[in-house]
Amino acid sequence: MAHAPVLEAIDQTQIRRRPPLDVLYEWVTTVDHKKLGLMYIGYALLFLVIAGFEAVLMRIQLAVPNNHFVSPQVFNRLFTMHGTTMIFFVAMPVMFGFGNYLVPLMIGARDMAFPRLNAFSFWISAFGGLLMYFSYLGGDGLYGMGSAPDVGWFAYAPLTAKVFSPGHSTDYWTLAVLLSGVGSTGTALNIVTTVLSMRCRGMKLSRLPLFVWLMMVASGIVFVAVSPLTAAQIMLILDRYLGAHFFDTQAGGSAVLWMHFFWIFGHPEVYILVLPAFGFVNEIIPVFSRKAVFGYPAMVAASVGIGFISLSVWAHHMFTVGMGAAGNTFFVFSTMVISVPTGIKIFNWLATLWGGKIIFKVPMMFCIAFLFQFLVAGLTGIMLSAAPFNWQLSASYFVVAHFHYVIVGAIITSLFGAFYYWYPKMTGRMMSETLGKWHFWLFIIGFHLTFDFMHVPGLLGMPRRIYTYEAGRGWEGWNLIVGIGALFQTAGTLIFVYNLVRSYYRGEVAGHDPWDAWTLEWATPSPPPSYNFAVEPTVRSGRPLWDLKHPEDLDENYE
């Protein structure tokens, strides 16, 4: 039985230092999937810091009544830029970054199917993020200093019409999101093609790591969901400059048409982000439970089911626009149905933990936090799927708390676990466990202070997207707690960033397989060479590296 050789870690101190310009040129021109994955991740981390700073400014503004910390115009720009940045320039790039880095390694391939397309996708996505922030330099804003977009990350019509959004801030937003969509589609195409055509010998679909399955399903959703958003951006440009009137109600267009186009992308986008997060958890929990994942076929079937059902739930964002009883009923039903495959996953993760020899390292701690927080996010999602309940709370802070429970409580939390788990593979160094635990507790405590208590002012009637509020409505104390929680999260995130940098230079040398894992990426040096595998691996089961380390346990019938 031939296997990829298990190689020792590269001693970073023995690598000859090269001139900085040579290193820069190599990274800028690279088509290596690992370097492109790292650039996606670094780019997303940069924007995570920026978006986090924007969020802190908003929470300071709302911490007390009648506050004038920032102006109404600046507040509108902050929540537009924060939302757009987090979705398009943090969450999507970082998920594609991990997919870029790990998918070829996990399936025994030497690179992505289309390396040059991979590089093109990264650079066009990166330019999209930079373009949106170029709006600050546009010169058409207050005092000629430029202005960021201020129409919300959802950019509802008619706010985006020329009469309500003069100047070019909305054009920056439109072009930035359009470019991001082009880059995302290219990367999704690359991932699907790579998985279907470049697996090593013996790597059948029934033996794929669950992370690879989930990246493939998420990429499939990108094909369907990003196209309507791209079409909507083009129609918006035509409306603003050529008088097309797609969304101009006074000329026979429809503002609700924009909502349909946007949310046909917007809600499947949640699953584009959360499915890779599920993939992180699917790889980390079994390793730190010392058990194979429970119910592999059911997990795959649930993942594919979520992919299909996610394309039919978008209009639960639109219960208040008057779709009628038939439309409301369909989207209530589809939104509730998607909880079934999601529930299968939660039960299977719990079954994997049950009876396992659980090791409470930092990656596992974040995954356990993910399980609780994603469960709460799912429960509030089911509450909001009921149209009468949704009518009451659709424009309140209850909804803000719900979707932040998904984005931060599930996606960002599992992402932190992925960083601690795969950082040794990417850099050859271990991250500090002590700093990691400080990061974990500060961030999780801050998360619950912020988003648990944010539900309450929403139930008390606090509307979202407001700049300030009067005293005496019962919202003051809750908003102050929420603001304090945001500061805790900020402190935890800054410790995480410090841990990343410090560990790169001073971290303990990791070796090739510090976690005693069983997927193929851990059979390579840390970090892997440009060619990944000197010899193409041959896979005999769903745990190829475990079979190499423990050939006596190999079951000829194991799938």
Any overview of this molecule?
This protein has 559 residues and is an all-alpha fold. It has one domain: Cytochrome c oxidase-like, subunit I domain (Cytochrome C Oxidase, Chain A, Up-down Bundle), CATH 1.20.210.10. Helix content is 64%, strand content 0%. The chain is built from 16 helices and no strands. The protein is globular and about 70 Å long. Residues 1-15 and 141-145 have low confidence and may be disordered.
Name the features.
mainly alpha, 559 residues, disordered N terminus, 16 helices, Cytochrome C Oxidase, Chain A, 64% helix
The H/E string reads HHHHHHHHHHHHHHHH
Beta-sheet strand percentage?
A: under 5%
Biggest pleated-sheet summary? none
Query: Mind telling me the C-alpha Rg?
Result: 24 Å
Number of contiguous helices: 16
CATH homologous superfamily assignment: Cytochrome c oxidase-like, subunit I domain
Task: Count structural domains.
Answer: 1
Mean of residue pLDDT values? 91
Number of strands: 0
Annotated CATH architecture: Up-down Bundle
Stretches with pLDDT under 50, minimum 5 residues: 1-15, 141-145
CATH topology: Cytochrome C Oxidase, Chain A
Shape: globular
Oligomer type: single chain
State the share of residues found in helices, binned by percent.
55-70%
Write the layout of secondary structure elements.
Layout: H1 20-29, H2 33-62, H3 72-106, H4 115-133, H5 169-197, H6 210-242, H7 255-289, H8 296-309, H9 325-337, H10 339-353, H11 362-385, H12 387-393, H13 397-427, H14 433-459, H15 476-506, H16 544-549
Helix pairs in contact: 2-3, 2-4, 2-15, 3-4, 3-5, 3-7, 4-5, 5-6, 6-7, 6-8, 7-11, 7-13, 8-10, 11-13, 11-14, 13-14, 14-15
